[in-house]
Amino acid sequence: MAERVEIFDTTLRDGEQSPGASMDEHEKLQMAKQLDRLGVDIIEAGFPIASNQEFEAVRKVAKHVENSRVAALARALPADIERAAAALEPARRPVLHTFIATSDIHLEHKLRMTRQEVLDNAAKAVALAKNLVGRVEFSAEDATRSDWGFLVEVTKVAIEAGADVINLPDTVGYTTPGEIRGMFEHVIANVPGSDKVIFSSHNHNDLGLAVANALAAVQGGARQIECTVSGIGERAGNTSLEEVVMAMRTRQDVYDYDCGIDSLELVPSSSLLSKITGLTVPYNKPIVGRNAFAHESGIHQHGMIANRQTYEIMTPESVGRSRSELVLGKHSGRAGLANRSEELGYKLSEPELKTLYEKFIDLADKKKEVYDDDLRMLIVALHNESFEIYHLKDLRTSGNDPAMALVSLRKGEETFTDTAIGDGPVHAACNAIERIVGVSGRLERFDIRATTPGKDALGEAYVTVAFGEKTYKGNGASTDIIQAAVSAYLNAMNKYIALSDSFSPEQV
Questions:
Q1: Contact call for residues 63 and 32 (beta carbons, < 8 A)
Q2: Distance between CA atoms of 123 and 76, rounded to whole angstroms?
Q3: Which residue ranges in the chain fall short of pLDDT 70?
Q4: For position 329, what pLDDT does the model report?
Q5: In whole angstroms, what is the distance from residue 230 CA to residue 201 CA?
Q6: What percent of the chain has pLDDT over 90?
Q7: Residue 428: enclosing H or E segment and its boundaries?
C-alpha cells in the first residue's frame, strides 16, 4: 500500500510573493476555497505580522476553510508568533509555522547571530508557538546550504520544544536530488525522536529542480511536500503542486506514495489562480499548460488516433481537462486533418481530403495554428472559392459618449449603409454591421498589437465572437486600430454567415 504524503500548499503565502501575484482578502478566500476543494492537507494563508490586511486575510481564510488545516507563517520572534496565533484563532485545525535561518551565510550576513543563539531562539519560538497552537511546524531556513551537523542539532532542539513538523527547505533552489535525499536521510537517522514528527520539503526552482528535489526528499524520508499551484513563488517559483502530484500518481512504480489531492481539480485550480493574479500559465507548462495535451506533429496525431497511450502518459480528463487537442499546424498530417474535420461534422471523400490538405498546408505555412473555424472555411472553399460575404467599404466614427459610427458594406454588386451608436467607436461600428447583416454576435475576446514599428504602425486585431453556442475567430489589419478591430469582427461574422449558408446548424 502506498505511503501517505501530505500536501502543504503555500500559494497564498510564498506563491503570492511572486511579482504581480498579490491578492486581496476576497481573492485569497476565493483561492483558499478552491484549494480546499482540491484536497490539500494544509493551506498556508499568509504572514500575519506583515500588515493589517494580511492579518485579516489569514483570519478570513482560517474562518471559512472547512476541511484543510490552515497555517500562518511567523519568524522566530514572540511578536510574530503571537500575531500569527491570533490570526489563526477561528481555524478548525490551525498550524503555526515558525522559522529561523541555519546556514552560515545567513547567520553571518542576515541574522548576525551565533549558532548557539539560533538554537536558543528556535527552542523559545517553538515552545511559545506550541503553547498557543496545537500543531507547530519549524523550518530551518536555507537548510540545504547548512552544515548537516548543525541541522541535526537544531532539529533535535525543535522536536524537544514541541515541534510536530520539521521542514528542511531548499530556500534558494541550490540543491540537487541526490544531495537533498542524503540530507533528509542523515538528519532523520541522527535525531532522537525523528519517528515522532513529520519531515517536510520546501523547494525553490532556481535551477529547475524543485519537483525532482521534492520527490527525492520523499525518498529520503520526508512525508510532507510544500508546493504551489502552477509553481508560482519567489524568483523562479516553488515546487509545482500539479507536477509533483501527477508524478507520484503516474509513476507509482518508482514513487510508491499517494496524497489526498482530487486531481480533477488541478486544471480548475490553475485556471482560477491565473484569473485572480493575471499571471498567464505558460503554454508548455506540464499538466496545466495549454499544450500539455496538444499534439501537432502528424506522426503524433496518427498515433493518438490509433491509441492515446502512444503519446500520452496520463489522460487529460484525470487532471480536469475535457479532452486532448490535435492542434492543426504545418506539422500536422492528413490523418489528424481528417479526424478533426470529422469531429466538426464533415465527412470528406478521399479527393476532397486531398484538396483540403493542400489548401490547409498553404494556410498553415502562413499561420502558427489553424483554428476550427479556419478549417470550416477551407471546407466551404472546396465548393465555393469566396466566403467573404460582406466587404467593409467605408467606416466613419465620431464622439465617445455615446460614439457614433457610419458603416458601408458591399455584398456582391450591392452596397448597404447604416449608422449606430455604442459605448465606443468599435462598439458602435459593430452595432451598425449587425443592423445591416441582421445577425448579432457576442464579442468574447479582443486583442490588438502593432506588427510594424513607427507612428504609422500596422495594427493587427484578433477577436473571438460567439454566435449562439459556437465561437468564431476573426482578424483584421490596418494602420487605424478601429478599422482593424471592425474588420476582424466582420471577418468572424462572414465565417458564420458562410457556414450558415453552406451547412446544417449542427456543423455551423
A1: no
A2: 9
A3: 292-313, 322-333, 343-345, 366-369, 371-373, 376-377, 380-388, 450-458, 501-508
A4: 59
A5: 17
A6: 58
A7: helix 425-437
pLDDT digits (tens, 9 = 90+) for 345-380: 677 788 888 887 787 777 777 666 676 667 766 776
> Exposed (0-12), middle (13-18) or buried (19+): which is 453, by Cβ within 10 Å?
exposed
Question: What's the pLDDT at 332?
Answer: 66
The answer to pTM > 0.70 is no
Q: Give residue-wise pLDDT tens across range 209-240.
A: 999 999 999 999 999 999 999 999 999 999 99
Q: How far is CA 54 from the centre of its chain?
A: 23
Reduced 3-state DSSP string for 381-421: HHHCCCCCCCEEEEEEEECCCCEEEEEEEEECCEEEEEEEE
| Cα–Cα distance for residue pair 21/28, rounded to 1 Å | 11
One-letter amino acid at 272 equals: L
Alpha-carbon span 226 to 69, nearest angstrom: 13
C-alpha to C-alpha distance for 134 and 95, rounded to whole angstroms: 7
Q: Look up residue 81 and give its three cell numbers.
A: 508568533
- Using the 8-state DSSP alphabet, how is residue 467 labeled? E
Residue 369's pLDDT is 65
108: left (phi over 0), alpha (psi -120 to 50) or beta: alpha
Type of residue found at 81: I
- H/E stretch holding 69 reads strand 69-75
Please state, in angstroms and as integers, the Cα–Cα distance from residue 139 to each residue in 169, 204, 231, 358, 502, following that order. 7, 14, 20, 61, 66
- Looking at the DSSP assignment, which residues form a beta bridge with residue 461? 448, 476
The label of the residue with cell 500548499 reads 9
List the one residue out of 472, 459, 453, 308 whose CA is nearest residue 375: 472
The phi, psi pair for 431, rounded to 5°, reads: -65, -40
User: How would you class 505 by CB atoms within 10 Å of its CB: exposed for 0-12, middle for 13-18, buried for 19 or more?
Assistant: exposed
